[in-house]
């Protein structure tokens, strides 16, 4: 209705009165800090290494990089690809498939910086994406993981299941291979 028609001004005024609180609420919503989304579920990275699919806990990572130059180092460990620089630090890079005992092929494109010290990066072939799963879609293994040396759970997806790599166990395995004590540094 138009204000020129009889009763049009009343309708426009009532509509403006109804819209004013909605407009104010909308405007105020931009002034408030973002609210947590509630139960955010399990955040994982779906990856492939050595032709096999895996998942990594996002919380166990400190960075994700692609096509980062790795300087090769000679040595007796086939899993050690070399070193790369991350945020000004020189970090050893290991091929995840080799650490897990799987065949490797080609040069891995992706590097994940593992959270914790000493600094450590793992190379893998492909990033399939970020997964945000409901908590019930991830089964965590118990303390007795002798049959799952480098895995700490399974992520159930429609049509497939991914083993969740225990990055702390991978770090411990690498330190054992290199004769380091867990969390210590050579001087």
Automatic annotation (TrEMBL):
Domain CheW-like residue range list: 41-176
Top-level division of the source organism's lineage: Bacteria
SUPFAM superfamilies for this protein: CheW-like
InterPro entries in UniProt: CheW-like_dom_sf, CheW-lke_dom
Pfam families assigned to the protein according to its UniProt record, in alphabetical order: CheW (PF01584)
An example Gene Ontology biological process: chemotaxis
Protein's UniProt name: CheW-like domain-containing protein
């Amino acid at each position: 209705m138009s204000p020129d028609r009889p009763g049009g001004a009343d309708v426009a005024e009532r509509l403006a009165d109804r819209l004013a609180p909605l407009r104010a609420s909308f405007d105020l919503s931009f002034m408030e800090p973002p609210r947590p989304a509630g139960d955010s579920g399990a955040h994982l990275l779906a990856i492939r290494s050595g032709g096999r699919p895996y998942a990594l806990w996002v919380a166990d990572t400190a960075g994700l990089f692609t096509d980062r130059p790795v300087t090769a180092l000679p040595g007796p460990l086939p899993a050690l690809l070399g070193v790369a620089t991350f945020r000004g630090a020189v970090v050893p890079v290991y091929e995840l498939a080799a650490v897990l005992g799987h065949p490797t092929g080609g040069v891995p494109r992706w590097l994940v910086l593992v959270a914790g010290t000493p600094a450590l990066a793992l190379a893998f072939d492909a990033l399939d994406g970020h997964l945000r799963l409901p908590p019930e879609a991830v089964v965590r293994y118990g303390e007795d993981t002798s049959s799952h040396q480098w895995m700490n759970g399974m992520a159930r997806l429609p049509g497939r299941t991914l083993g969740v790599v225990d990055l702390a166990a991978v770090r411990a395995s690498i330190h054992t291979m290199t004769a380091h004590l867990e969390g210590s540094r050579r001087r």
